[in-house]
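From the shared-data thread, chain only:
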Amino acid sequence: MSIKEIHYDPLKAVLGKFISRNVLMRRLFYAALGMLFLRQWHVRAELKRLSREKNKWDIFDAGSGYGQYTYLMGKLFPQNAILAVDVKEEQVEDCNWFAQRVGQKNATFVVDDLTTFRKPDSFDLALSVDVMEHILEDKAVYANVFASLRNGGVFIVSTPTTTEEAPSHDEGEAFSVIGEHVRQGYTEKEFREKMTRAGFVVEKLKYTYGPVWGKLAWMILQRIPMLLLSTSKLLAIIAVPWMLVLYLPAALFMWLDVHSNNKHGGGWMMVARKG
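Structure, as tokens:
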């Protein structure tokens, strides 16, 4: 079955203008992302676990985007410094503006390219969410993150999957159907090999967006609404009520996906360590 690609960049541009210098709207936007996107449920669970591991973390948000994960980490690790790097100057400026307005003094956003950015032995925790599928030179990024972590440092990566048998996702089981991606995702073998080649020890590699609960949540909260909105913004009159009515079962499905040992799925949650 062929799956129609969704192009998020036009919708992201609209959202960016809407929330760029509005504290309330950005707070609401971050809250909505945390509620609606399963990947953030998985990342939040992993970050909460790490926040109990020790008190002192110097943190690197590798590809900060809208800044929602930097904001989340600022709350989970309030006493620790966070350096957030992104290639988009406008987003970096907006995130710095927001951090200043809300008093998030432990976060700094800078413009840089992850394929060249390297700050040796500077961080204890690095996070990369929905980034590596956009970067062709991913090996350079993994090498740079490895060099930037201290010994024992942790690297959390969330990114789409693919399979050797269905690299184009013909069965619809992998959900990387975004037009802006440079790769469909990683196979388990490829992902492990690239991380190991960079020097990391893989501690955890888990499928997210599993074939039952994750897929149901994704269909309800992303796939169907985004297809409607990418067809016409006027269809928000259908998409928004759809998500409101079905949110509670979708939230249950996301919780079940986080707490399930999925045998396959549309995303990876990897935890790797330097040392």
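The domain at 9-273 is CATH 3.40.50.150 (Rossmann fold).
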